[in-house]
TrEMBL record:
<dbReference type="Pfam" id="PF05833">
    <property type="entry name" value="NFACT_N"/>
</dbReference>
<dbReference type="InterPro" id="IPR008532">
    <property type="entry name" value="NFACT_RNA-bd"/>
</dbReference>
<dbReference type="InterPro" id="IPR051608">
    <property type="entry name" value="RQC_Subunit_NEMF"/>
</dbReference>
<dbReference type="Pfam" id="PF05670">
    <property type="entry name" value="NFACT-R_1"/>
</dbReference>
<keyword id="KW-0175">Coiled coil</keyword>
<feature type="domain" description="NFACT RNA-binding">
    <location>
        <begin position="403"/>
        <end position="493"/>
    </location>
</feature>
<feature type="coiled-coil region">
    <location>
        <begin position="331"/>
        <end position="375"/>
    </location>
</feature>
<protein>
    <submittedName>
        <fullName>DUF814 domain-containing protein</fullName>
    </submittedName>
</protein>
Amino acid sequence: MFNNYYFLRQLSGSLKEHLVGMTLGACFSQSKDELMIGFYKGGREQWIRASLIPNFNLLTFPLDYQRKKVNSIDLFKEAIDEEVEDIIQYKNERAFLIKLTNNWGILFKMYGNRSNILLIHEGEVVTIFQKRHIEDQNMDVSQLDRSLDQTKEGFFENGLRGTFPTLGKEALAYLVKNGWEDADKEQQWGMLSSMISKLENPKYYTVEENEQVHFLLFEQGTTLFETDNAIEAANEFFYRFSKRFFVEQERGPLLREIDKRLKQSRSYLKKNYARFEELTESARFEEIANIIMANLHAIPARTKKITLFDFYTDKDIVIKLNEFQTPQKNAETYYRKAKNQKLEVRNLEENINEKEEEMKRLQTHRDALNDLEMVREIRKYIKNNGLQKLQKNEPVFPFRKFEYKGFEIWVGKNAVNNDLLTQRFAHKRDLWLHARDVAGSHVVVKWKSKQPTFPINVIEKAASIAAYYSQRKTDTLCPVIYTPKKFVRKRKGDPAGLVVVDKESVVLIEPAPFSENLT
């Protein structure tokens, strides 16, 4: 209720006692949403800080203020050195005017997200502080006063909103909570009269409700601060609310991003747990191979399917065979599948462990951020723990990025992303890699001027990553081509991700993920 008409009426009355007779000595802005206005008389100062941040429009009143030497601009210079003659509160309107000598004035229009400060001369708007509210330049100040029939008869005829349009949502909610909608007109008038009495002769409460700080002219929720001084009330509420507001601005987006990643991680783990269970409990490739080897003499040539005794379960089992291969070759195929299965199980275990550790780190950061209550502490924690990359305003690196032995390894994420990596982000001296004859990610090892050749262990590491991010991910060994990027070209009309390699070398490598992802 800090922009409620009834509070502003009492606030402007308190300001009148403090400011009349003082001289306007300074008016400047050090940020686009804050205006500082300073008055002096003798050795006494009084400041008005107008914070017009969207969703947080509030006036506060420091007794002194040290202006910064940089990033500061003087405003309303025409009215400097004019004396305060009066403060005028407009009737039934959330606006008041600091009237200065020589027909100058500063108009405070406290309309929520449309709040603004206007310089007035002879009743006309000269300039406005918030330029985004361009319509304020044409405001008719003479029409700000609103005379309303706020008698019982006026209420019966025009209803609540027609009679008391400036009551405010908090007061309306209070009435509803106390039975307004079930009351008859007479009872409603009694409730309304009681509410108006509270609003016109209030104490001021800074309260906490639903983990939010609120400013009220009546008691409700958990009281954090109580006073009958309007200026003191505004300052105290600003301190308590801004502390939470700016803390939430600083850590809120980061916490939401952490929650998003935790949710994604839980979904990822659910799928991988299911696949792990399927591989470890359902597939029996090695056992089937052993059964075939034990029955080589009993399997006729060109057999597609055969029933054999399963000595693992003491039951018969139907085994599918390749009719064009010998029984021994079929067994070798099942052994190879078993080996690939074990490799996939190992990779799944590594990925699951890595994701679980990542979730622990994220949860630790989330808990720590929730415990911090100062903006500078939050910024320090973010910097010390390298969390800038989680913040939404940080540019997102378009590729997977790893580092090995001082070399950066970039990996494309899909066909279009592969083209972006190879055609726009890769230098001709970079090393380019790709799993041979199958779909997969383009991989680039960035060239270093101080180390012009690529060590064999770096090539092998990048090749194992290229194999892992390909359709040969579960193979025992995968051939990977590598070449300087200058030998890779794209033909006009080829689909996304397809390139031509004019010169290549090949390394046979086991597919493996890289655990130290920098992004």
